[in-house]
Amino acid sequence: MTATRTGDPGLFGPGSVTWQAHGDPMMWVAGIRALYLQALHPRAVRGVMQNSDFRSDAWGRLLRTAAFVGTTTYGTTEAAERAGARVRKIHRMLGATDPETGERYGVDEPGLLLWVHCAEIDSYLHVLRRSGLPLTDAHADRYLAEHRHSARLVGLDPDAVPANRAELAAYFARVRPELAAGDEARQVDDFLLRPPVHPLLVPARELLWRRVAHLAYASLPPYAHELYGRPAPAPATVTRRLRGTGALLRAIPARLRWQLPPKHILRAMARLGPGARPAPYKLGP
């Protein structure tokens, strides 16, 4: 019999799709896809580029995003709420200026927050499913409904957030005319292909990172390839590569992968017991 402990399950809990899905190593590929997609909204990416030195602190930004996702997924309810409060506080203080019109706007505009949220959640779901994680359509709808909680944390009205695949598809269809690959998107694209690293790490970047970045880019929707102006391999080839990469990464023992800081999953298991271990077979029908 699996030992369990009484503890705060957090926002989602071990019975959620999110709990099982976010322990998958393909989340890193999905996170890079999300950056590519988010950069295609000119107002949203301008808010990032005008408020941070993306190129010099991009690694820090990636790690902070990963930490936020880990905390909100596997942390206590209090920790998740604190993380959300920090994000909302930072967003309230930041703004951006449209260089063509001179308009000044806040980065916490609901429309911008919604784009960032939907691009991120869509990327997680798309990459995990396409790479072989056994998520059914029903699981996908549950996952999207669950992430109204994370949308609330960043300042969105949960009722305004897509709660299933049909609503998410309708959202992307509505926002599509606003998307473009402007100068800021090109800078993000350039960084993702050639991130700054120590000279001794350049060979590793060329061998490993570029392959991951190319795979994340290839998994984007066709309209994103059209906007960036760079073709992707045939969909069947992309799916085969995603599945191959997923199989390779999932072959690494989970306990070994979860040792990487900040160890959100191991801390959740210590709090809730070994029965809280995330695993695809626990997804249920």
From TrEMBL:
Species annotation: Streptomyces lancefieldiae
Taxonomic classification: Bacteria, Bacillati, Actinomycetota, Actinomycetes, Kitasatosporales
Pfam family name, one: MPAB_Lcp_cat
Protein name: Oxygenase MpaB family protein
Entry's transmembrane regions: none
EC code(s) of this entry: 1.-.-.-
Positions of the ER-bound oxygenase mpaB/mpaB'/Rubber oxygenase catalytic domain: 19-251
Enzyme class: oxidoreductase
Keywords, ordered alphabetically: Oxidoreductase
InterPro entries the UniProt entry points to: MPAB/Lcp_cat_dom
Entry keyword annotation includes GTP-binding: no
